[in-house]
Amino acid sequence: MSSRLLILAWKPNDQATLRVGFVVSKRISKRAVQRNYIKRLLSEAVRTLIKDIPPGWDIVFSARNQIVGVSLPVILQDVSTLLRRARLLESSSSTNAEKKELNTRKGLSL
């Protein structure tokens, strides 16, 4: 499953844990610093939603070229949309988590 920024691959695992991986190839950026920054943004986006993802899945996010220069709120929205489309995320609680995260980043509190 894919979006403008990411490609999502998932499959069930035999463990009672959730494993998440990120792929940012050299085709995205030849600079390791930029690739690592994109991975940190993806990791932060997943971290805010991880409590709403059930255990027992292996999930891999592969970045597309359009992700370069995109901010965290946009990536968070994209990750959330992909997880909901894959039915790996409960839509009601994830929406609340997204709103809280975005408001926290803006300096607001709920």
UniProtKB/TrEMBL annotation:
Keywords: Endonuclease, Hydrolase, Nuclease, RNA-binding, tRNA processing
Protein name: Ribonuclease P protein component
NCBIfam families xrefs: rnpA
Pfam families per record: Ribonuclease_P
Recorded superkingdom: Bacteria
Database matches in InterPro entries: Ribosomal_Su5_D2-typ_SF (IPR020568), Ribsml_uS5_D2-typ_fold_subgr (IPR014721), RNase_P (IPR000100)
GO molecular function: 3'-tRNA processing endoribonuclease activity; ribonuclease P activity; tRNA binding
Organism: Dictyobacter alpinus
EC number of the protein: 3.1.26.5
Entry keyword Hydrolase: yes
First-level EC class: hydrolase
Cellular compartments per GO CC: ribonuclease P complex
PANTHER family: RIBONUCLEASE P PROTEIN COMPONENT
